[in-house]
Amino acid sequence: MKRILSLALIGFVLASCGGASKKEEKAADQDPNLITCEGIGKVKLSYSHADLEKEFGADKLADTTKEVEGKKVSVTKVFKDTPEEVTVFWAETTAPFTKAVKLSVSDEMGPYQLEEGIRVGSTLKDMVKANNFLPVTFTNFYANVDGFAHIESFNDGDLGQKYPCLGGVLDIDRTDNLEVTLLDEFKKENPVKSNHKAMNFIYANVVELSVSAK
């Protein structure tokens, strides 16, 4: 009886070790630069300014402001002026900063991407494909002075369901044989969807990806 119990105990220990090993392998295989609803790479939405200092060092942080919809917002740039730069938007207007409301990246050379491979520099067509070919809704390029379009919805597609936190900015890369009448029709709609007829002739790229707190 003791021999049977001993063998069972050994089997349990081996199984436990095997499970732990698989978990370690999975953690090791996970891309450290993934964009998720928890954060962008190692920069987490749950981090306060103090957490950022502890995690990355004060010398890796640059506090500044950014204009958002006509208002100045306090932000911190982590790894400023490098491809790894992540901008943290704060709920507070002055220090101490404790609650991040959004993280964003905009460097095409940066390492960050969604698990589906979408990154800064990806095309709108890539994004629609990752969204299970459901359209992406965004503000009209021609309705904004800066010419950028802001993503408003993934219309219950895969990206919207998996990343309810996800936002982004699009820019026109080029247009190809776009008729004036179709362009005029397109300009009248705001927001617009990626399946609009004009988008067959407008090629747009992702110039910013962001995740927001719930």
Question: How would you characterize the overall build of this protein?
Answer:
The chain is an alpha+beta fold. The protein is 26% helix and 29% strand. The protein has five helices and twelve strands. The protein has helices at 2-29, 49-56, 124-130, 158-162, 180-187, and strands spanning 35-36, 39-40, 43-44, 61-68, 71-78, 86-90, 100-105, 137-138, 149-153, 166-175, 192-193, 202-212. The strands form two sheets. The protein has a nine-stranded antiparallel beta sheet with strand order 4-5-6-7-12-10-9-8-11. A three-stranded antiparallel beta sheet has the order 1-2-3, with no helix packed on it. It is globular and about 55 Å long. The model is unreliable at 1-15 and 20-28 (pLDDT under 50). Residues 1-22 form the signal peptide. Keywords: Signal. It comes from Olivibacter oleidegradans. This is YceI-like domain-containing protein.
Keywords:
214 residues; alpha+beta; three-stranded antiparallel β-sheet; 29% strand; globular; disordered N terminus
What does the largest sheet look like? 9 strands, antiparallel
**Helix content class:** 25-40%
Low-confidence stretches: 1-15, 20-28
Q: Describe the strand arrangement of the main beta sheet, using strand numbers.
A: 4-5-6-7-12-10-9-8-11
Mean pLDDT: 90
Number of strands: 12
Oligomer: single chain
Protein name: YceI-like domain-containing protein
Signal peptide: 1-22
Organism: Olivibacter oleidegradans
Keywords: Signal
